[in-house]
Give the backbone structure.
Amino acid sequence: MLGRTYEGQNCSAARALELVGERWTLLILRDVLLRHLKTFGEFRASLGIARNVLSARLDHLVREGVLQRRPYGGHADHYEYLPTDKATDLLPVILALTAWGDRWAAPQGPPVLFRHGSCGAAVEQRVECAGCGELADLHQVVAVPGPGR
Amino acid sequence: MLGRTYEGQNCSAARALELVGERWTLLILRDVLLRHLKTFGEFRASLGIARNVLSARLDHLVREGVLQRRPYGGHADHYEYLPTDKATDLLPVILALTAWGDRWAAPQGPPVLFRHGSCGAAVEQRVECAGCGELADLHQVVAVPGPGR
């Protein structure tokens, strides 16, 4: 649908944004992954967006294999949308955006906290060095060419 | 500039996307944080986008305190753009997008690898439970209401 939005960028972040960078897409995935919403009507109620926009976003995610669409409730035109592994793998992006928003744009405190379902303890996202453990200083991260350069 | 793009969403991920969700913005921040680009001309060369789009994105980031603009080279109209802590804090978002793109959209392998500058070892991003350590299964992450709900 979009072609290569970031033509000329040999960059995995740019490739990721080509698939999930459109307005509303990451919030749809938040709803799928964390609120366990499944149907067009549930997404509409949660997001309050126009039907044609929601429909285009869902179609795109299905086409890209991020969501799986399947009939439900015995109606030929009722579908539910389920996350694939490609969707679940986006959870770290949503956690990182949430942590940043909690710190910089949530004067009332975090609207949502993340917990480990089976033990109830806090879930945290860390940037770590395989050599020396947690990287407290993010300025210490450097990018070097990889095999796909 | 955008007002509240995601009006009605009491969600830190949505708040974050209001500041950095516009097309090109996260790639500008990638260039600032990881490629250490600083000037309008350097961003233009890296991204190949229209001057007016780049200018609008940079103005927005300066207004929001994500980038600091300051004169350089003794020219009244030459500026460089430097990351604030609010920018550096976005590195986990870029790392998470990159990891996802590496896995799902980089058939030639990762274009870029992240290393710890001082020791050279690989930098990794982990989702961990404060109770039991690494969370191998992201399906185990649940969202519960926080103080800002």
About this structure: Helices of chain B lie at 12-20, 25-34, 40-47, 51-63, 85-88, 91-104. The beta strands of chain B are 67-71, 79-83, 112-116, 123-129, 133-134, 141-145. The domain at 12-140 of chain B is CATH 1.10.10.10 (Arc Repressor Mutant, subunit A).
